[in-house]
Amino acid sequence: MAAKKILNFGAGPAKLPQEVLQKVQRELIDYHGEGISILEMSHRSKTYAGINDGAQQKLRLLLNIPENFKILFLQGGGTGQFASVPLNLIGKTGKADYIVTGNWSRLAAKEAEQYGKVNYVLPETKTFIGPPPKDQWKFTPDASYVYICDNETVYGVEYPEVPDTNGVPLVADMSSNFLTRTIDFSKYGAIFAGAQKNVGPAGVTIVIIREDLLNNALPVCPTVLNYTIMARDNSLHNTPPVFSIYVMDLVFNWIKSQGGLKEMNRRSQVKSGLIYDTMIATKGFYSCPVNKSSRSRINIPFRIVPADVAKQAELEEKFLAGAEDLGMIQLKGHRSVGGIRASLYNAVGVEDVQALADYMTNFYETASK
Ligand SMILES: Cc1ncc(COP(=O)(O)O)c(C=O)c1O
């Protein structure tokens, strides 16, 4: 009997393209006729050097990364970067500006406080629904860098445009929207992303950094977090997460074969549009608290708001159970905010999201009877 079709809306680790998984399966035992698997191969081998360099070149082409930016494949995840960013970049003036729009940028700012003076650009808030108007932003003129989280995965807050930092290098955490749209590198000093949402398995973290920002690490910066050493050694200073980088390289091929970032962006607009339009059509039964201009194309948190508010928890549980019965999994909201969250990463197909939107409509109609 064929297994039930699963539609995976998980926030990460998340769905990978089926074609990529099938290729990994085919190649696993005997990598390209070498008689051993990629998992067993030296990271100093010619074969792995080809994968490491090939993945960098493909990423450079996909994103149109200028030559004066270095591409690093590191470990430690997004959380590792919360420390790496200040350890490598705050030394210039000892100060950095953090624009906190959700829990991930808040955690990054807290981590940075260990290494220098952190200025909070926005007024403090507990409700993350998108940044306030620009007249409330307070930058420090001599900050070493300005930090943003381009897409807040838990709260579903995404920047529609790159904030203007008046020449101060902008550092962006793109863990949850990496490779879902093009990037204008003239506006960034550094970008990082954990792979486990849009580009591969957990284990590798991509850092793209402008060369002139290197050579500035604090003396306490550990070697494995040091961008300058990792750039000098082509991300091969120590053993890299070989398997994760190999799978990520295959995902780069897949993205190119699908039409590149323009197509990934088009699909993300269509997919998120299906969910936001369903919210409008169901007249407030589903509610996303985020301001329209800051709504994420990638992670959509929402609550069910029934006429009788006391029924919210019961209805949300019923919604999630009914979704699971249809094979739609990992839709539960983050433990800190509750409710429901649909994550629409690159490998999640438009037809999967259409199925979710149809289910939302049916559930609304049944509940409203
Ligand atoms: C935007 C963002 N930044 C950072 C992180 C932390 O990543 P990691 O678990 O790889 O440390 C996450 C995790 O979901 C995230 O969504």
UniProtKB/TrEMBL annotation:
One of its GO terms (biological process) is L-serine biosynthetic process. It catalyses: 4-(phosphooxy)-L-threonine + 2-oxoglutarate = (R)-3-hydroxy-2-oxo-4-phosphooxybutanoate + L-glutamate; O-phospho-L-serine + 2-oxoglutarate = 3-phosphooxypyruvate + L-glutamate. Pfam families: Aminotran_5 (PF00266). Its EC number is 2.6.1.52. GO terms for cellular component: cytoplasm. PROSITE patterns: AA_TRANSFER_CLASS_5. The keyword Amino-acid biosynthesis applies. It is an enzyme of class 2 (transferase). Residues 6-356 form the Aminotransferase class V domain. Keywords: Amino-acid biosynthesis, Aminotransferase, Pyridoxal phosphate, Serine biosynthesis, Transferase. CDD domains: PSAT_like. Its cofactor is pyridoxal 5'-phosphate. GO terms for molecular function: O-phospho-L-serine:2-oxoglutarate aminotransferase activity; pyridoxal phosphate binding. Pathway: Amino-acid biosynthesis; L-serine biosynthesis; L-serine from 3-phospho-D-glycerate: step 2/3. Belongs to the class-V pyridoxal-phosphate-dependent aminotransferase family. SerC subfamily. This is Phosphoserine aminotransferase. It comes from Cloeon dipterum.
